[in-house]
# Entry
Amino acid sequence: MNANLRFWLGAAALGLALVAGLRLLGNDYGYFAGYFVLQYVVLAGAWNILGGYAGYVNFGAAGFMAAGAYSAIVVRQWLGWDLIPGIFAAAVVAGLLGLGTGYLTLRLKGVYFSIATLCLAVVLQTLVVNWDYVGGSRGAYIIHARDIPPFNSYSEMLFIVMLALAIITTGIGRAVEMSRLGRGLQAIRDNERAAEAVGVPTLRLKLVATTLCGALMGVAGAPLPYYSGYLNPEAAFSLAYAVNAIAMPLIGGAGTWAGPVIGAVLLASLQQAATVTISSALNLWIVGWMLVIFVAVAPRGILGWFRKRT
Amino acid sequence: MSEVFFRAAGVGKRFGGFVALAEVDIELRAGERLGLIGPNGSGKSTFVNCISGDFAEHDGQVSLAGTVLNGLKPHRRARLGMARTFQLPQPFNSLDVLENVRVPLLFAGHAAEATDRAMACLEQVEMADKARKLPKELTQVEQRRLELARAIALNPRLLIADEAMAGLSNAEVDQIIALLFKLNEAGAAVIMIEHIMRAVTAFSERLVVFVAGRKIADGPPRDVLALPEVEGAYLGKQ
# Structure
């Protein structure tokens, strides 16, 4: 059996086991918490394509995620279409946003690029706050059916959708890593000037990466209004998304397809545990401490730490 | 004698009011070995950056095998057969030696046979046994060899070796010269920018001298080095 088939079969088996386990548990909270973790698997995997492989740190994850969330709201308001078309619309809108951002900012290097992406999130938030059609600063409601056959509950449906998105995102990350695109991005991360000199079309590859990264971040955000039932700009552009999108791949092992998955599962589970046992106000505090610990002990993340020892 | 296939005509570069390079003309025939010398700050690296595309904006025209290169990005020039090495080796540090050499092949339309070709390039520079090592595990001369292997992977018609021997011992310099000769025998013209006069005179069949951004001499090494203005400007004699 080849490695690709093994990956997809393994991911599908793990997904089925998760759904079966949560059904046996019979508690809606399991789906709720699972969705929370999986949305970060998608977000961290998306960030990793540009930040992990190419070394371009995107501080605007919240902006792309919110672009996806509001695209789903617009599709719903305008056309009356539901979640799945909303996810496709989010991918297109956030992907184009990524392409445009890349075209305008990728001549900037290092911290200048990062600041430009941060500015993008601020500009988008200002636009949304002043856009009445999507609720402006008041926010927008999504009314949904209580149950959606053949799913046991609405929460289960959302969990399964996010699970599928997480598997697809991880598969895309893995495909990028194994491909010519991935090698080119790694060369750019290590030495952009040398990469150009040996024939790597650096600008084109970076544009592909920003588009893919943006589209997947948008996809992570599209189900958000369906998940919470209500979305306002403050929640959609939350600092937590931007911080977690960076911290999770770094802690799991940036530049590897499995790193963001490990980091997202670890950090999001810790945050979810803190939310239900203490307070969600502790979430960013936990992320901050984890980052400090990992920068000091394992700067190349969990995967890097293990590889160093094998 | 073969026809001119590389031509830099009136190439110049200013940084604000400072003229780093002024109307330099250099022609090269296929398979020719050119040495480019000059004191620090004479414009050698500026010239290399202009012709390799690192400086997108400059005066004059650069052409390779009849194709005007002005406006082309470095990766397009690389695909047309222009390869370069850097003053300080610039490997892809997270990739092992083999992957470093595979990168140019993946983007030159040789993805299917990239591994075999990369191994062949490493064999040419006698680095096949280091294929799975990371660049940081290599010695200085091995890093230089890796740079050359990466350049060979581009199947170059013109190789620009920018101080490829800086910091090496005499024996290591001889190894790099031998490699450059091998590459030249395979058909590549070579521009060697170098401070090590022993290497330049041993390798070059023609010598160009830059001083203060201007070309002051161009000809056979023995004749050029005997010119009083070269001695005065480059070797510090009156």
Q: What stands out?
A: Chain B has one domain: 4-234. The beta strands of chain B are 4-15, 18-29, 33-37, 59-64, 67-68, 82-85, 158-162, 189-193, 206-211, 214-219. The domain at 4-234 of chain B is CATH 3.40.50.300 (Rossmann fold). The first strand of chain B starts at residue 4 and ends at 15.
